[in-house]
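Exercise 7.
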Amino acid sequence: MTTLKEEIRRLSSEVFSSVIQDRRHLHAHPELSFKEYKTSEFVKARLSEMGVPWEPMAGTGVVGIIKGEKPCDRIIALRADMDALPITEGNDVVYVSQNMGVMHACGHDAHTASLLGTARILQSLKDRFGGTIKLIFQPGEENLPGGASLMIRDGVLENPRPDHIIGQHTMPEIEAGKIGIRAGKHMASVDQITVTVHGRGGHAAQPAQNVDPILISAYILVALQQIVSRAAQPHIPTVLSFGKIIGNGSTNVIPDKVYLEGTFRTMDEDWRAEAHTRMKKMAEGIAESMGATCDFDILRGYPYLVNEAKLTERVGIFAEEYLGKEKVVGVDIWMAAEDFAYYSQQVDSCFYLLGTGNKEKGITSSLHSPTYNIDEDALAISIGLMAWLAVKQLGN
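Solution. The predicted structure, written as tokens, is:
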């Protein structure tokens, strides 16, 4: 009789072509956050074909259950997100997005197709393992309040409650065939900042008669960076970036107001709250001192993501058993944000990075870019790896 690992490898090879087909179908038909209607129906149809029972959740979310036939009361959850981004695709591929202005530029098509492939493997092996596996297909990772928070609200972590949850994210900076893993704090919290500086517009040749919101905004932008460089403790990663400024004046027109949008990211909740207070007070104070007013609003986003140390250590060991030690690499903190963090705040979690880059094939574009793509050979290992991690974590 073949070993469980050998059987997972065999099944991975067997379902690989269908996983590629699923990924290409999803890539060609992307849907934005919380509007994943056809994607959700696709997932439901695939699970039904496998004989995996499922239930809808949080609108377009789907939760499947696979129960091993051997005695075991442990429960593990596996998660994939399904939404795409408002980006016009720039790739010249046969499976290019058919929905203009919408693109799977963050790899969620690969996440969903991969988990469907993992489900096929696990459903075929029910008589070889014990325990319960919860399959979470989640909407809205890219937009606040985050689909994970809505899934949790609607009970995804209950009835039954998983002991652990594992997720993955495509990473073009890591070579296909490898994964990246890190214990402890892994990804940052995220907050959206909007600022409106109200001045008094007028002719640019008569600045003394105006209250220049462009100049005041410049002072505010520079001063706020002191929150990061001088107020933040050196051991707490902190990022403050502004990516949008709208003045709508002209060469000879000072506008009445300036609008700014930015993001604040860190890995400490106490410091996060303190920084919010500091930024607001500083911006409003500068504006007032220069004769203007300032509306400073912070939309609180996802918390930071933490990988539980013992679980992550085991995932690393199991991954080395399946892939080989040289294919499992340590990674640094990543200041991007992920709503998987909501799960990690409630259940022991491990979120690892799936290498999808290939310089020889020219697959090097970054996440969230119009030319982002993956080396699909990465899916050959991702489906079996997650199945292996699940059954091993269940104690099989």
